[in-house]
Amino acid sequence: MLRRKFIQSSAMILPATGLLSFTQKYSHYKNTPLDIGIAGYTFVHYSLDDSIAIMKRLNIRYLSVKDFHLPLDSSPAQVKEILDKYKAGGIEVYTVGVIYMKTEAEVDRAFDYAKRVGVNMIVGVPTYDLLNYTEKKVRAYDIKMAIHNHGPEDKLYPGPDDIYNRINKMDKRMGICLDIGHALRAGSDLVRSVKDFAPRIFDLHIKDVSAAQADAKSIEAGRGAIEFKPFVDALRSIGYTGKCSIEYEKDMKDLVPGLAESIGYFRGIMAC
Amino acid sequence: MLRRKFIQSSAMILPATGLLSFTQKYSHYKNTPLDIGIAGYTFVHYSLDDSIAIMKRLNIRYLSVKDFHLPLDSSPAQVKEILDKYKAGGIEVYTVGVIYMKTEAEVDRAFDYAKRVGVNMIVGVPTYDLLNYTEKKVRAYDIKMAIHNHGPEDKLYPGPDDIYNRINKMDKRMGICLDIGHALRAGSDLVRSVKDFAPRIFDLHIKDVSAAQADAKSIEAGRGAIEFKPFVDALRSIGYTGKCSIEYEKDMKDLVPGLAESIGYFRGIMAC
Hints:
The structure is a homodimer.
Chain A lengths: L1 H12 L5 H8 L8 E5 L8 H10 L4 E4 L10 H13 L3 E10 L2 H14 L3 E6 L4 H11 L2 E5 L11 H8 L6 E6 H6 L4 H7 L4 E6 L1 E2 L8 E2 L8 H10 L5 E4 L9 H15 L2
Parallel strand pairs in A: 1-2, 1-10, 2-3, 3-4, 4-5, 5-6, 6-7, 7-10
Antiparallel strand pairs in A: 8-9
């Protein structure tokens, strides 16, 4: 089944001759200072190679890699092999995650992994009792921790305020990966969140949801309840310099049309 | 080959259960008064059924139908059968074309066809010597003629000015289908064209091109040389009430990713 999907997606995303060089040659997004990336979970049903081909086709250069494509226990040699594949595709792995941590050993593993991968940030979810230990590791490794909010069902961090209130007195390298879809479902005001938590917003998961309510569903960007223009204006107002990683969670076994539409929509918003 | 493509595209666009009703239920484009359609030539390598499935997947409601999906010599019964297919897909055929006319008989055929299809506009290219005859038919049928510009290679109408200068003294139902990609390649100023030719702009072919030069290539909207925001602002400034039909002419045998990205981009621009 998945195999079939891979074949379909491969067939679908295999570009016409010279497409990539052509695309890269002419690619320039006017008035678009923000880098677009992809949150790796988007590719949960795709092979590593297919995910790279899709990112190339959609002209995406940055990836928050998920462990199913770069396992947590990868040896330095295995890390290099996989990073080389991404590099060959013109893709930079700028962070890792989302990594869930329930024990100090899992925190240790996450930081050792991030160091092996060579990134300066982890998108993660440490339990409350691990926050102080996580802060120690952030200082020891000089690797930032961007804690991810996962909406109303999330017992720990439904919205960005639930993160901010626990880390705002901590080391400045403790911050937030703001997932705007989950935040809206959790009742957050996205513009307010960007402005209030500005110095702690390290990463973004960009998506749309069908409504501003807890049980809303993922949907193509622009078809849902999120007001993208005020959100992007707010990012510009705080001088956000991180990535904007699209996370597409609808039709995840056949995601290219909706992912492409969502990326196009966000690029359109950023061009205004 | 094409058959294989159809199968792939079908496999690719077959939605997850309930997708369409879900999409339609939640679809609403904020600050977007302009209707997005598709210029039928986009689907030159796709079957009628696949083109409908793609439009449903991308939430497109309006089509400028091309003769390879609705033949010019279709009987009333054949027209009804095909229009019923589009209606079942939630798609309204709002115009026909592009139809090239080199003889009075071809003009007669185009107007009889448009009348059978039940549209109030033809996107067409009558030769200069047929313009007066075309105007007579416009009056006799009360069907508008939107003449299409096709860029520097077009011996008749490279840019919208080449159309406007020949029809601006004619019946008000003689107008322009402004193809912005071909117009840019022909050296037109898109904002100027929209404002100067406002009352005569009946339809639009929306696309991007790699550069503002004659030999530029088609490219995903937002990756090229067209400044979409000023163009859309100009459309709003003249109170444009026609459709904005995306015409995607890159990777035409595997067009969904680029078409979806282009539609998303244009929706993003319109949402600002």
